[in-house]
Amino acid sequence: MFLPKLNNREKAQGLAILVLLLLAVVSEAAMLWSWFQVLEPQLREKAEITARALAQSRLSLLSDALTEEHGGIDPDRVREAMDSLMLITDPITDNPVILGIELEVDPDVIHIDPAHFPFHHGKVDCPDCFVTEVPVYATRTRELLGIAHFYNSSEFYRLFIAGVRARLLTVSVLVIVLFVAAIIFLALLFKKAQKIEEKLREQQAQLIHAGRITAMGEMATGIAHEINQPLTIIRLAAYGLNRYFSNLGTKSMEARAARKIVSQVDRCVTIIDNMRSFVRNVPHGDTSVDLVEALDRALSFFREQFRVHLIELVVRVPDHPVWARINQQKFEQIVVNLLSNAQHAIEEKALVVEEFDRKIEVNLDHDPASGEVELMLRDNGLGMNEEVRQRCLEPFFTTKQVGEGTGLGLSIVHTILREIKGASITVESHPGQGSCFSIRLPAEQGENHHAHQDTAR
Asked: With respect to CATH, is domain 284-456 assigned 3.30.565.10?
């Protein structure tokens, strides 16, 4: 009655396991039926044939004793022949085979006084024994003298079939083990498929989240374009007020407010220009890019965020342009993704550590000897353990909750760098101590000057 509540995958899993269980039960039932209906009767018959053959191997003694000669049949000789037959043992287990013998002779052939003749010898009333009948013929004339009834030991029969039963039991256990192994393997396979399905659902959710972010980015571009027009009007009005107060030569509060309006409007225009440049479609080919300028443009998106979140941003760049052949937007995207990742790591650490100096360092260095540019970004955030560090560049791998991250940021960085010949990325991280991402790019020829430091909080 619970089947309608299961989904199709769970129904398929249950059906497959049920089929395997039914096959195991049917196989065991078939083996049991074969044993009781086919093998056991055949083995009993074979045991009787073996016991009969063992008796016939010494039956000549009894035949000789029952053959009439001068002086008649000697009962003692017949008894000795019976004793000899009862000494027959199983050649493998050395257990006695014949426990009793009963003779049925033809009175027309053998003339003997019944009072002096031993018609039976040993255990002839054994309910557990199985009986085999062997005809007794005269040694020379091959005339039928009678029939000997041998009462054979049930232990002989039991030991006779024990080996076959043990082999059948071994096969039965092996079949059960194979079916159990198949069920376990199938369950593990279904469990793995379930994990893959869950991971696929998470990736689909992350793709949907990434799509929403992309849509918001497109909306933000349109909003930035719309905001640019009223900002232009505000800037013109602020310039007019600023010139008016400048002509009056006043240093009033209104004059200072007009200058502040002009400054803040220019700042908004710069942010909007950087945003539009970041999302603008440009040719995919690499061009000579000043990494100092591109880095500053990418940092402009985060300076105010870091100030609000009390994150100290330390930037060290050369005091001259550093040129590299790369797509400008891709380089800015690398920086944006790394900064976003660093900010998240620091905010995650702030949830477990109340007081610590929140800090992000960005270093851009040009090494003329190696002909490379190194961009290093270090944070003192939550850090990563070794397993997460090794997987952090994989697509869709994220430690964030669904809806908080797509798991594509560092993967996109890695993908961009793989497209650049000679580029590489290394990651160092320790739990609780932060992470350091080092990116090396081939540089174009240029003169190296002293670096300067820009500190913002």
From this structure: yes
